[in-house]
Amino acid sequence: MQKSMRFYVMAAMMLSLLTASCSAVRMPEGSPTQPQPLSPAYTQPAVVSLATQVPVVDPCSSLEAKKPEIETIARIMGEFDDTSYLIQSIPDSGQMVQVILVLQRIRRDAIDNKPPECLKKLKEAQVNFMSGVVLTSISIMSKSDKEAIQKQLAQTRTYRSVFDQELANQLGLKYITATPVPTTAPTAVPPTSTVSPVTATTDQDIYVVQGPGLTYPAVGTFLKGQITNVMGRNDKGDWIEIEVPSNPGYAGWVPKQLIKLAGQESSLPVINIQPTQPAAQ
User: Which residues form the SH3b domain (predicted)?
Assistant: First the structure.
């Protein structure tokens, strides 16, 4: 019995020692009800934050600051362009429904995007263009009046020009209205043929310019994954004239090294451009 009592007393003493060693407050012997102030050795040290404050960068302060937001807008537009191009290859207007639904989804993504104030005009032009494409596609699917469709196409083309011009402004590039494709006598092609003998694609987003040289102003865009008809080449063969994907029915020039050609390049006519209207530097 005494051994048991001795065990419990020893256990209680051990527990009291453990709790005392874990506590910052020590009770002196002989005065258990009078706590002493903390010993200087146990003074709580001040907490010093080592985190450095990251300066907030104004997204409109420079081109580099705006670039991520511009790339987001361009990415959404590229997806929209790639999808809208499918409409041209759908023979049955009834099959356009699924494509139009995808276009509407991408348009909602553009609306939900929240760019900084300096890019609001670019976003507005983008949404206007997308709305025009969707409405025109619905008119084509429902076989609306041809004259009304032509008006919608013209308005939509204007919206796209506004977008391309604002994009060029944001990137610090000069932009002018594209020149119409020269009117020529139509060439007879097999009934099953829907594209010219030579087409072009690109692996990157590039600008289409007015003439065969970097001094000419931009007239449109040629985005990654798009395909377009090739009109001709310059005498050196290092610049190719194409139909501007962002402005169907209009022509512009791109460096050959930035595109991929499909078809017989040797069949392309040599087109001479008057070098009298380059953009001012």
Answer: 193-262
